[in-house]
Write a structure and sequence with these properties.
By secondary structure, the protein is of the alpha/beta class. The strands form four sheets. It has a six-stranded mixed beta sheet, sandwiched between helices. Strands 10-11-9-12 form a four-stranded antiparallel beta sheet, with helices on one face. Strands 4-5-16 form a three-stranded antiparallel beta sheet, with no helix packed on it. The two termini are 23 Å apart. The structure holds zinc ion. Zinc ion binds next to helix 3.
Length: 389
């Protein structure tokens, strides 16, 4: 089904990236910022279809205007997924020196919103794939483009639920300066609230103090943190222990009134090997008895669904292959990715892509031109090994 002019109908790397950058696809919990990613998905689908890929565009349930793209070349039980997210973060117009939606070359850099995080990965993956479209693949090559990585991660979540794509290996092209990453911590953000009873401060029996309950709860949380930090340590991380940060607190209204309501938000960063449901249960086991004793109504819930921690073993075939191709040992990073959901699909997963995380989520985001050819070469090496070899 490959047309003879198929390669010619797909533009070069620069033109592809310019087009993707010109299509706003910001994702944000704030509706003022949030865009559909449909234009980016349709553009990628058009190019990949011209190269002979089978195209599947999937709705993200409950999120109108958001789509995942699964593009597959060849078939077989194994295969390699090259995965990226189509969305970007919002931007601060006043701090940009060029138009965020126009690919601008200056020095040896391409500037634009999403150049490094991470629209830049797609043209390079497509360029890598072009070299293989005329030869039979023993295992499929899949290019996966997801929605809403920067906000809800609901694109990846929907894929895990749908059981797609099916393959053996996955590389997520987040900006790691082309160094393989096989671990990151998880992210949880939780809300704890107590509801008591207000009353005159002169007689404590007139009410039930939510603020004092929260004081005790915070002591419990810090004690739990201490226990977890004793028990879990991973020297691959810069911060080697799981963290728990008490982020903000709101409660009460007057010094001479018993505080009726108090709410605490905190963030938890578990290490690989720590299960998020177990952590929530451990917190609840500590807080519930004190709430009962103080007769405070308790609510404890996640502020968002969270990102599980991620780890792929050092001796995994994909880790070994990427270390060999790049000359770098796989390491751990401080940011979270869609890797846990691809792992849920049974994919051996690794994070590695062009550009530096230092430029991500920043004004004047750019991609170094020196990253382009090495990325294409490394991806071709992976395709050769996992789709042809
Ligand atoms: Zn990213």
């Amino acid at each position: 089904m490959v047309h003879t002019d198929s390669k010619a109908s797909v533009p070069g790397i620069r033109e592809m990236l310019a087009r993707l950058i010109s299509q706003p696809s910001i994702s944000s919990a704030s509706p003022d910022w949030d865009h559909s990613n449909e234009a980016v998905v349709r553009t990628l689908a058009e190019w990949l279809e011209a190269l002979g890929f089978a195209i599947e565009i999937l709705d993200v349930p409950g999120m109108p205007g958001k789509y995942n793209l699964v593009a597959t070349l060849g078939s077989g039980p194994g295969g390699l997924v090259l995965s990226g997210h189509t969305d970007t973060v919002p931007f601060d117009d006043k701090r940009w020196h060029s138009d965020p939606f126009t690919l601008t070359e200056k020095g040896d850099r391409w500037y634009g919103l999403g150049t490094c995080d991470m629209k830049g990965f797609f043209p390079l993956a497509i360029e890598a794939a072009k070299a293989f479209i005329d030869q039979p693949l023993k295992q499929p090559l899949i290019i996966l483009a997801t929605a809403d990585e920067e906000s809800s991660m609901n694109g990846a979540r929907a894929l895990a639920e749908a059981g797609k794509p099916r393959a053996r290996y996955a590389v997520i092209g987040e900006p790691t300066s082309l160094r393989p990453v096989r671990m990151h911590k998880g992210i949880m953000m939780e809300r704890l609230a107590f509801e008591g009873q207000s009353g005159h401060s002169s007689n404590p029996d007139l009410g039930r103090n939510a603020l004092e309950g929260m004081h005790e709860a915070m002591t419990e949380l810090l004690a739990l943190r201490g226990q977890w930090q004793e028990k879990y340590r991973n020297p691959a991380f810069k911060v080697q222990v799981p963290t728990l940060n008490l982020g903000c607190i709101h409660g009460g209204d007057n010094p001479n009134r018993i505080c009726a309501r108090c709410e605490l938000h905190f963030d938890l960063r578990p290490l690989p090997g720590m299960d998020m449901d177990n952590l929530r249960q451990a917190i609840l086991n500590r807080i519930q008895p004190l709430a009962e004793r103080r007769q405070l109504a308790l609510s404890f819930e996640p502020l968002f669904d969270g990102v599980p921690p991620f780890e792929t073993p050092a001796d995994a075939a994909l880790v070994q292959a990427c270390e060999k191709l790049t000359g770098h040992t796989a390491h751990a990073v401080a940011f979270a990715t869609e890797a846990p959901w691809l792992q849920k699909l049974g994919l051996e997963t690794l994070v590695m892509g062009p550009g530096s995380i230092d430029q991500a989520h920043q004004p004047d985001e750019y991609l170094e031109l020196s990253q382009l050819q090495p990325t294409v070469d490394i991806l071709r090496g992976l395709i050769r090994q996992f789709c042809i070899g």
